[in-house]
Amino acid sequence: MPRTRTRRAAQDTFTRPFPAAVVYDLSIPDQATIRVPAGSSWTSGPHWHDAHTEYLQVLSGRARVTLGDREFCVGAGDGVVTVPRGVVHEWRRADVNAGRLRERGAGKGVEMEELVVREWTEPKDGAKEVFFRNLNGLILDAAAGERRGKEGKGVSAWGEAILTLELWNLFWRADNYPVTLGPGWVGRVATRVMMGAAVALGWVVGCCGVYEEYGAK
């Protein structure tokens, strides 16, 4: 991935393509509105937060939420899901065969409805906006670098390695701990060890995960 970063500080909407298509709207401070279209394989990925309580509210469609050892579906009008600090959680579209439905061109039912979820955290310290701005900036710039790599101007494997290192540094700075070897204490220790190694290596090679060009505060 090239070290040149696209300036996105004035950008409030970030769109990523299929297969994991998703649109992030960061136009309102301290919250994100996330749109996941039918057929998308996007998922938040299992993770936890040490210093933030997170809230999820489905505005349209249905989401499948994993919260600790519970899994359930939430739709518009079902209220707010509270994610306590330290609890592993993940959410995605409720329809597990969304990709197949999209290929068939099905057009009716909740399976083809866009999933729209509003996320926010307490405390409202700007961390969520910083996280999503840098997450999307890094991923979108990496994708652009990969396209250039296919034209003989870069190395895809190197770009993937740098992106992974950048993301782990971002996770550390944004209180976002991805599950690595399961949600138990062994997995949590593994996550912290991997994160510590990534931060140390990032310091050596100049990858910090958060950049002014993306609108970091």
Short description:
The chain is an alpha+beta fold and 217 residues long. Helices cover 34% and strands 25% of the residues.
List the helices and strands and how they pair.
Blueprint: E1 13-16, E2 22-25, E3 31-36, E4 47-48, E5 53-60, E6 62-67, E7 70-75, E8 80-83, E9 89-93, H1 98-104, E10 115-122, H2 127-153, H3 156-173, E11 177-178, H4 185-205
Antiparallel strand pairs: 1-2, 2-3, 3-10, 4-11, 5-8, 5-10, 6-7, 6-9
Helix pairs in contact: 2-3, 3-4
Average residue pLDDT: 89
Give the overall form: globular
| Global Rg | 18 Å
The H-and-E topology, N to C, reads as EEEEEEEEEHEHHEH
Euclidean distance between termini CA atoms: 24 Å
Sequence of strands across the biggest β-sheet: 1-2-3-10-5-8
The biggest sheet amounts to: 6 strands, antiparallel
What would the keywords be for this entry?
11 strands, 4 helices, alpha+beta, single chain, six-stranded antiparallel β-sheet, three-stranded antiparallel β-sheet, 217 residues
Care to describe what's here?
- The protein is of the alpha+beta class.
- The strands form three sheets. Strands 1-2-3-10-5-8 form a six-stranded antiparallel β-sheet, covered by helices on one side.
- Mean pLDDT is 89; it is low at 97-108.
- α2 (127-153) packs antiparallel against α3.
- The radius of gyration is 18 Å and the shape is globular.
- 34% of the residues lie in helices and 25% in strands.
- The protein has four helices and eleven strands.
